[in-house]
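Q: Hi! First time doing this. I have a protein sequence and I read that you can turn it into a structure. Is that right? Here it is:
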Amino acid sequence: TTNVIPAIVAGAADIVYHEARHAEQWHRMARIQAGTGKSAKTIATEMAIPKHVAEDAAADPLSGESKEATEGKAWLESVYGANAAHRNTVLTTLAAQGVELETKSAAARQAQQELQALDRDPQATAEAKAAATTACTTAEAEYETALTAFQATYAQYRALPEEQDAWATGGAVQAAYMK
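A: Yes, that's right. Below is the predicted 3D structure, encoded as structure tokens:
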């Protein structure tokens, strides 16, 4: 039990730092926008961020080719620029596939339970057991197909520049905490 608590805290720290990093990313993207001469009002509107955040970013515009600017530009392209449609497709598809995966998982569990119940039932016919076996095999195959599709899209999600960065940040905090 004593090893569980640090793992839970480390996991929570991972999530907090991951999400906090997204906030930093959005601020930096706003700074990039300010570096192109956009006003705080335009930045707030275009990025759908609070006005005070856009004003803070506009007070510290970012341009050039520094590491900070290069990262910010990559995130901006992913979220709002040329790659935004891909990002939106990945996120929308991932959400739909997550629902589908849960549905297929529940169906496979149900089919397994029904087959197990028939296996325990001395009154069950061979035909009923065969039908339940087929249903179980089909449900498990559908789950595996849904899982494979979800995993492929999840890999695309993790490859988004803003997600690579946020996952690395959270993971580094979690690893440091566990040391």
